[in-house]
Amino acid sequence: MNGPVVVGVDGSPSSLAAVEVAAREAGLRGVGLRLVHAFGWPAAHIPPGGRLWEPSGGGVRELIDGTLAKAERRAHETAPDVVIMREIVVGEPVMVLEIESRAASLAVVGSRGLSRFGALLLGSTAGHLAAHAACPVIVVRGRPDPGGPVLLAVDGSPAARGAVEFAFAQAAAHGRNLVALHAWSTRSERAYDQPADPPFVTYDEGRLRDEEERVLAEALGGLRERYPDVDVDRRLVRGRIRHTLIEASADAGLVVAGARGRGGFAGLLLGSVSQALLHHAHCPVAVVRSGQE
């Protein structure tokens, strides 16, 4: 998709960090950058005595324009050649950004915005957008200016193919290595030939490891040839999936995961692994739903 990169702007430090990431992504893609401020008055910061949407009554419009102007300056400093568009949309941020994502090539948000609930690990807008956006989403979180490779969470599910392709494209565009990490354990569904309680099932650990190696190889199939300049580090790690990926993210510049992996409930839009990364990863997290890349 050649649509713009959309970034949510609310004036918080987290959203300004997201603006920088979004500007760089727009520059690499050769597309425009769309700065979107959603004006939802239950969450809006209205000056005392100010009216909701009268520029002459309380300076609300001036306040929002100032927020967008600051974001635009930050974006221009980051990517001077990118065409920048500013948009103020009346509505709740979660719905506004979901609608904006339908025409975007990428959506970027900070992990936490301006909110009464400052202690939350993940803002409601970021979590909702990762689960519902029509395009890939990058949630900017973790350490500032993270360097390192692109870390791909490989689960072998058909729904995660878009995440694999997105990770290769990101590594190529940024000139980074790709770490394809597949964590496995003896509790994997592939350890059992038929339904049974795990404590009473025997398994061949060597056979299981070979199967997990096959899953990793098949997940990367065809893409190493399409991206010959991307150095790929294949890692098969026995351990708890969420813990292993969160730990590995400490050395990564971006971690990429599918919205839902193997197992879980069909009705869930965001799986436990992607949720854990959005809450605890040490670097920005990209979530790619099935069919996106």
General description of the model:
It is a single chain. With 293 residues, this protein is of the alpha/beta class. Helices cover 35% and strands 18% of the residues. The chain contains nine helices and ten strands. The chain has helices at residues 13-29, 60-78, 93-100, 124-132, 161-174, 205-219, 223-226, 241-248, 272-280; strands spanning 5-8, 33-39, 84-90, 106-110, 137-140, 150-153, 178-184, 232-238, 254-258, 285-288. It has a ten-stranded mixed beta sheet, sandwiched between helices. Strand 9, helix 9 and strand 10 (285-288) form a beta-alpha-beta unit. 40% of the residues are buried.
Biggest β-sheet strands, sense, barrel: 10 strands, mixed
C-alpha end-to-end distance? 9 Å
Strand order of the largest sheet: 3-2-1-4-5-10-9-6-7-8
Number of β-strand runs: 10
Average pLDDT confidence is 82
Rounded Rg: 21 Å
Question: Which descriptor suits the 3D outline?
Answer: elongated
Uncertain segments are 46-57, 115-122, 190-197, 263-268
How much of the polypeptide forms β-strand, as a percent range? 15-25%
Share of helical residues? 25-40%
| String of helices and strands | EHEHEHEHEEHEHHEHEHE
Give the helix tally. Answer: 9
Class derived from helix and strand content = alpha/beta
